[in-house]
Amino acid sequence: MRVAKKQNGFTLLEVLIAFTMLAVIFATTMEIIAGSARNTRKASDNTMVALYAQSKLDELGLLEKLEEGSSDGDFDDNTSWSLDVVPFDVPYEGDVNQDFSVVELMEVTLVVTTQRGGRQRHTEFKTLRAITPDFSQRRK
User: pTM value?
Assistant: First the structure.
């Protein structure tokens, strides 16, 4: 009597299913990595814009006199800025006349424009700055 030996191994169907599962897992992993790289690049760009804006706003009142008007310039070849400074009127509903104040509020609007891959992106920053008014000019 002969006893048939049982063969150990995988069938073709099992190999194909394992290969398909491996391919799906690999494709999903690659998509996650690509998405992560895109998000890292966007975060880097956003951080750079915020740093440029911070440096420009820090210059106001220190290196440049804060006064009403507009100006613009470039940070680098792909990044430019425009700045608008206008007086800010504080709404007041009281009975006292508010013609005189020891500080004057100025609304500062900074727009940072970046150019990347043929697309422009505008990021706007707004803040209020207090300045001491020049009373010598008001008396004239």
Answer: 0.69
pLDDT digits (tens, 9 = 90+) for 52-63: 999 999 988 788
Tokens 């006199």, residue? 65
Domain residue limits, the chain: 12-138
Virtual CA dihedral for 123, 50, 56, 60, nearest 10 degrees? 90
Tens of pLDDT, residue by residue over 82-124, are: 999 999 887 777 666 666 667 788 999 999 999 988 899 999 9
Going by DSSP bridges, is the β-strand pair 69-76/79-87 parallel, antiparallel, or unpaired? antiparallel
Which of 102, 9, 108, 107 has its CA nearest to residue 56? 108
C-alpha closest to that of 111 among 78, 75, 81: 81
CA angle 133, 138, 140 (to 5 degrees): 150
